[in-house]
């Protein structure tokens, strides 16, 4: 589908038609013939926008040329009839040219909104792919860890007062020391501590697979696809809702 001409394109067409109307017809006619010859010859080198501009220029220029022609013939009724006859012939030939250009391989063949098949074949489908490489966690068995966490009687105490109970060694920390991860004492899952926000996440049935951009990625087992913490929390929330409804 062709786009509607903009105000700028409309003004340019009117100015071109006015120029040919003011020039003698024997000067305007060679200009239109040159445009008519250039359009099919340069079709494969023109962009879609340039080809459409040339096609519109022919239509506007023909109107100006016809006005100059009837003025040169005297401007009477006879001149007007001859100009109308010339308009019928000229715009018929222009329609034939545009129809041929629409079938010929080139920028006008597919219209404005439909790209050619090579563009469709090379165009990316969906969002750009992103390769995620997880950094494996470094499990530690020491009693003291970054962030001021100390192992005391089956749990960890932080210097800021945060406490994690019923966890066991070993534990892991992210490189920026924001995340502190410990396994539950009964082996049912892990506990994630967001040291920056002071939040605890007890995740039953999950294990730490690794870090990506200093964020924890978790999985149900070694064969399952790892998921970020946000996706894991959404899954657990949906499972709790389903259990409550049942």
Gap between N and C termini: 54 Å
Number of helices: 6
**What is the tally of beta strands?**
11
Give the integer mean of the pLDDT values.
75
Largest sheet: 4 strands, antiparallel
Percent of residues in helices comes to 40-55%
Rg estimate, integer Å: 38 Å
The low-confidence runs, each spanning 5 or more residues with pLDDT under 50, are 110-114
Morphology call: rod-shaped
Helix-strand category = alpha+beta
Percent strand equals 15-25%
- In N-to-C order, the SSE pattern is HHHHHEEEEEEEEEEEH
Strand order in the largest sheet? 1-2-3-4
Q: In words, what does this structure look like?
A:
- With 246 residues, the protein is an alpha+beta fold.
- 44% of the residues lie in helices and 20% in strands.
- It has six helices and eleven strands.
- It has a four-stranded antiparallel beta sheet with strand order 1-2-3-4, with no helix packed on it. A four-stranded antiparallel beta sheet has the order 5-6-7-8, with no helix packed on it. The chain has a three-stranded antiparallel beta sheet with strand order 9-10-11.
- A hairpin with a 7-residue loop joins strand 10 and strand 11.
- The longest helix has 27 residues, at 77-103.
